[in-house]
Amino acid sequence: MTGGRPPGFNELLHFPVRLSLVSLLAPAAHVEFSYLREATGLSDSALSKQLTSLQDAGYVEVRRTGRRATARLTGTGRRALAEHAAALRTLLGNALDGDPGEVPASADAPAAGAAQ
């Protein structure tokens, strides 16, 4: 791991708005610009800027037909998202497994609430 980040960690995709966008694009063939705008709450200009960043990286393809625009996740974008998700799982490890309140008491430590 370099700098505390596992392989596959993607700075571009880790930004919350871009991660939301690729997550919205992943299950669909093409997604309307208006849907992405509504789902993310971004202005037209902010959404265009984020899509351009993703497009410059080769992760997203934007198609314009007249006034209508759609976006889709490319194969490169899918791989980057999958690798980033795997890196996040590695980074989190077992942090989200179980409930800390369910951890069994060790033999040499008193149980929670036990009289000492």
TrEMBL record:
<dbReference type="Pfam" id="PF13601">
    <property type="entry name" value="HTH_34"/>
</dbReference>
<dbReference type="InterPro" id="IPR036390">
    <property type="entry name" value="WH_DNA-bd_sf"/>
</dbReference>
<dbReference type="GO" id="GO:0003677">
    <property type="term" value="F:DNA binding"/>
</dbReference>
<dbReference type="InterPro" id="IPR027395">
    <property type="entry name" value="WH_DNA-bd_dom"/>
</dbReference>
<keyword id="KW-0238">DNA-binding</keyword>
<feature type="domain" description="Winged helix DNA-binding">
    <location>
        <begin position="17"/>
        <end position="91"/>
    </location>
</feature>
<dbReference type="InterPro" id="IPR036388">
    <property type="entry name" value="WH-like_DNA-bd_sf"/>
</dbReference>
<protein>
    <submittedName>
        <fullName>DNA-binding MarR family transcriptional regulator</fullName>
    </submittedName>
</protein>
